[in-house]
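Write out this protein's structure.
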Amino acid sequence: MEFAQRHAITDTCVLVRDLEASIAFYRDKLGFAPQHRAPGFADFTGAGHTLALWERVHIAANTGVPVDLDAPAGLVIAVKLPDAASLDAVYAELCAKGVAFVRPPANYPWNARCVYFAGPDGELWELYAWLTGGAPGKIAGEAAP
Protein backbone atom coordinates (compact mmCIF):
# COMPACT_ATOMS: atom_id res chain seq x y z
CA MET A 1 0.00 0.00 0.00
CA GLU A 2 1.29 3.46 -0.91
CA PHE A 3 2.60 5.93 1.69
CA ALA A 4 -0.37 8.31 1.31
CA GLN A 5 -2.83 5.49 1.88
CA ARG A 6 -1.10 4.37 5.10
CA HIS A 7 -0.40 7.74 6.75
CA ALA A 8 -2.95 10.50 7.34
CA ILE A 9 -1.89 14.12 7.07
CA THR A 10 -2.02 15.21 10.69
CA ASP A 11 -0.56 18.71 10.61
CA THR A 12 -0.47 21.70 8.30
CA CYS A 13 2.45 24.05 8.81
CA VAL A 14 2.35 27.60 7.47
CA LEU A 15 5.72 29.31 7.02
CA VAL A 16 5.18 32.83 8.36
CA ARG A 17 7.09 36.10 8.36
CA ASP A 18 5.70 37.52 11.62
CA LEU A 19 4.99 34.78 14.14
CA GLU A 20 3.27 37.04 16.68
CA ALA A 21 0.86 38.49 14.09
CA SER A 22 0.02 34.98 12.87
CA ILE A 23 -0.52 33.67 16.41
CA ALA A 24 -2.92 36.53 17.10
CA PHE A 25 -4.83 35.91 13.84
CA TYR A 26 -5.28 32.16 14.33
CA ARG A 27 -6.04 32.41 18.06
CA ASP A 28 -8.18 35.55 18.18
CA LYS A 29 -9.98 35.55 14.84
CA LEU A 30 -10.31 31.85 14.00
CA GLY A 31 -10.36 30.44 17.53
CA PHE A 32 -7.54 27.90 17.29
CA ALA A 33 -6.42 26.75 20.76
CA PRO A 34 -2.65 27.18 21.42
CA GLN A 35 -0.95 23.85 22.04
CA HIS A 36 2.83 24.50 21.95
CA ARG A 37 5.08 27.55 21.77
CA ALA A 38 8.84 27.54 21.19
CA PRO A 39 11.31 29.97 19.63
CA GLY A 40 10.14 30.60 16.05
CA PHE A 41 7.27 28.12 16.31
CA ALA A 42 3.72 27.69 17.59
CA ASP A 43 1.02 25.15 17.01
CA PHE A 44 -2.67 24.90 17.69
CA THR A 45 -5.37 22.31 17.95
CA GLY A 46 -8.45 22.53 15.83
CA ALA A 47 -11.24 20.10 15.07
CA GLY A 48 -9.21 17.00 14.22
CA HIS A 49 -6.09 18.71 12.89
CA THR A 50 -2.94 20.46 14.10
CA LEU A 51 -2.11 23.83 12.56
CA ALA A 52 1.53 24.84 13.01
CA LEU A 53 3.19 28.18 12.38
CA TRP A 54 6.93 28.25 11.76
CA GLU A 55 8.77 31.52 11.34
CA ARG A 56 10.59 31.53 8.00
CA VAL A 57 13.89 32.86 9.35
CA HIS A 58 13.84 30.21 12.09
CA ILE A 59 13.29 27.21 9.80
CA ALA A 60 15.88 28.50 7.32
CA ALA A 61 18.50 29.09 10.03
CA ASN A 62 17.94 25.81 11.84
CA THR A 63 17.26 23.24 9.13
CA GLY A 64 19.01 24.52 6.02
CA VAL A 65 15.71 24.34 4.13
CA PRO A 66 15.78 27.10 1.51
CA VAL A 67 12.95 29.53 2.26
CA ASP A 68 12.00 32.66 0.33
CA LEU A 69 11.61 35.06 3.23
CA ASP A 70 9.32 37.43 1.30
CA ALA A 71 7.10 35.16 -0.81
CA PRO A 72 3.44 34.81 0.16
CA ALA A 73 2.41 31.41 1.44
CA GLY A 74 1.59 29.13 -1.49
CA LEU A 75 -1.08 26.89 -0.10
CA VAL A 76 -4.80 26.66 0.44
CA ILE A 77 -6.20 25.42 3.73
CA ALA A 78 -9.72 24.14 3.19
CA VAL A 79 -12.53 23.48 5.62
CA LYS A 80 -15.44 21.35 4.43
CA LEU A 81 -18.76 22.32 5.96
CA PRO A 82 -21.85 20.11 5.95
CA ASP A 83 -24.05 22.39 3.83
CA ALA A 84 -24.47 25.87 2.34
CA ALA A 85 -26.40 27.17 5.36
CA SER A 86 -23.54 26.18 7.67
CA LEU A 87 -21.07 27.89 5.36
CA ASP A 88 -23.10 31.10 5.41
CA ALA A 89 -23.30 30.97 9.22
CA VAL A 90 -19.53 30.54 9.58
CA TYR A 91 -18.99 33.38 7.10
CA ALA A 92 -21.15 35.69 9.26
CA GLU A 93 -19.36 34.56 12.43
CA LEU A 94 -15.89 35.26 11.00
CA CYS A 95 -16.96 38.58 9.45
CA ALA A 96 -18.04 39.65 12.93
CA LYS A 97 -14.50 38.86 14.16
CA GLY A 98 -12.94 41.05 11.48
CA VAL A 99 -11.85 38.41 8.98
CA ALA A 100 -11.62 40.09 5.57
CA PHE A 101 -13.06 37.89 2.83
CA VAL A 102 -12.28 38.21 -0.88
CA ARG A 103 -16.04 38.39 -1.55
CA PRO A 104 -19.22 36.95 -0.04
CA PRO A 105 -20.01 33.22 -0.39
CA ALA A 106 -20.98 32.12 -3.89
CA ASN A 107 -21.90 28.95 -5.76
CA TYR A 108 -19.16 27.86 -8.15
CA PRO A 109 -19.16 25.68 -11.30
CA TRP A 110 -17.47 22.81 -9.41
CA ASN A 111 -20.78 22.29 -7.56
CA ALA A 112 -19.73 23.90 -4.31
CA ARG A 113 -20.59 26.97 -2.31
CA CYS A 114 -17.30 28.60 -1.30
CA VAL A 115 -15.81 31.66 0.33
CA TYR A 116 -12.16 32.72 0.57
CA PHE A 117 -9.94 34.75 2.91
CA ALA A 118 -6.21 35.09 3.52
CA GLY A 119 -4.13 34.79 6.67
CA PRO A 120 -1.36 37.23 7.58
CA ASP A 121 1.19 35.66 5.21
CA GLY A 122 -1.12 35.31 2.25
CA GLU A 123 -2.06 31.72 3.03
CA LEU A 124 -5.39 31.22 1.36
CA TRP A 125 -8.33 29.72 3.22
CA GLU A 126 -11.35 28.16 1.54
CA LEU A 127 -14.57 27.33 3.33
CA TYR A 128 -16.70 25.07 1.13
CA ALA A 129 -19.83 22.95 1.11
CA TRP A 130 -20.86 20.62 -1.69
CA LEU A 131 -24.17 21.47 -3.29
CA THR A 132 -26.84 18.87 -4.16
CA GLY A 133 -25.17 16.04 -6.05
CA GLY A 134 -21.86 16.38 -4.20
CA ALA A 135 -18.38 16.55 -5.64
CA PRO A 136 -18.12 16.25 -9.41
CA GLY A 137 -15.58 14.08 -11.23
CA LYS A 138 -15.71 10.94 -9.08
CA ILE A 139 -13.02 8.47 -10.14
CA ALA A 140 -14.29 4.89 -10.31
CA GLY A 141 -13.10 2.76 -7.40
CA GLU A 142 -12.03 5.69 -5.23
CA ALA A 143 -13.47 6.62 -1.82
CA ALA A 144 -15.85 9.57 -1.69
CA PRO A 145 -14.37 12.89 -0.46
